[in-house]
Amino acid sequence: MSERTVLVLDDNPDFVRAVASVIRPLDLATAATDDPDQFPALLGREDAVAAIVDCMLGERCGLGLLTLIAADRPTLPTLVVSGYGEAFLAQARRFAESHGIERLATLAKPFSATDLRAFLAGACGRG
Fold first, then answer.
1. pLDDT in the model for residue 63
2. Running DSSP on this structure, what letter comes out for residue 40?
3. By CB neighbour count within 10 A (0-12 exposed, 13-18 middle, 19+ buried), where does 83 fall?
4. What tens-digit pLDDT sequence spans the chain (127 residues)?
5. What does the alpha-carbon distance between residue 64 and residue 4 come to, in Å, rounded to a whole number?
6. Angle formed by the axes of helices 113-123 and 13-23, to 10°?
7. Which of 36, 47, 96, 103 sees the fewest Cβ atoms within 10 Å?
8. Contact, 70 vs 103, CB < 8 A?
9. With contact defined as beta carbons under 8 Å apart, do 49 and 14 qualify?
């Protein structure tokens, strides 16, 4: 069986390590970047089974990458996370609905490993 990878775009190395620690026991790999300009290359990976995108990356907004997901991988299960409140998450949900992203979920940071595992179970068809 080929490796299944979760794409992670987040500028907090501790968050990326925490996600990887939850993903590893599920037999999933992590491909992470903190650079929105590198995310399109990750999005092109054939082994990607889900994406986790942070709303804010330093001074940059990660929500703009939802345009790429809508255009290239609208069925890719995508989790948008934010430590900046519900407004960003609501904006992500509205964008997904209007641009045909079929499987978008949102979580406010901090969230539990149980919440992340629930997202991944649905993403990987283990729900």
1. 83
2. H
3. middle
4. 468 999 999 999 999 999 999 999 999 999 999 999 999 999 999 999 999 999 988 778 878 889 999 999 999 999 999 998 899 899 999 999 999 999 999 999 999 999 999 999 999 875 4
5. 25
6. 60
7. 47
8. no
9. no
- For 126, half-sphere exposure in the C-beta direction (CA atoms, 13 angstrom radius) is 11
DSSP states along 60-112: EEGGGGHHHHHHH-TTS-EEEEESS-HHHHHHHHHHHHHHT--SEEEEESS--
Burial status of residue 86 (CB atoms within 10 A of its CB: 0-12, 13-18, 19 or more): exposed
Token pair 């790429």 is at which residue? 68
What pLDDT shows up at residue 2? 60
Given a contact cutoff of 8 angstroms between Cβ atoms, the answer to whether 101 and 50 are in contact is no
**What span, in angstroms and rounded, lies between the C-alpha atoms of 5 and 28?**
6
Q: How far is CA 54 from CA 64, 65, 67, 126, in A?
A: 11, 10, 14, 24
Instruction: Please give the model's pTM, rounded to 2 decimal places.
Output: 0.93
Nearest 5 degrees, angle CA 12-CA 60-CA 81?
50
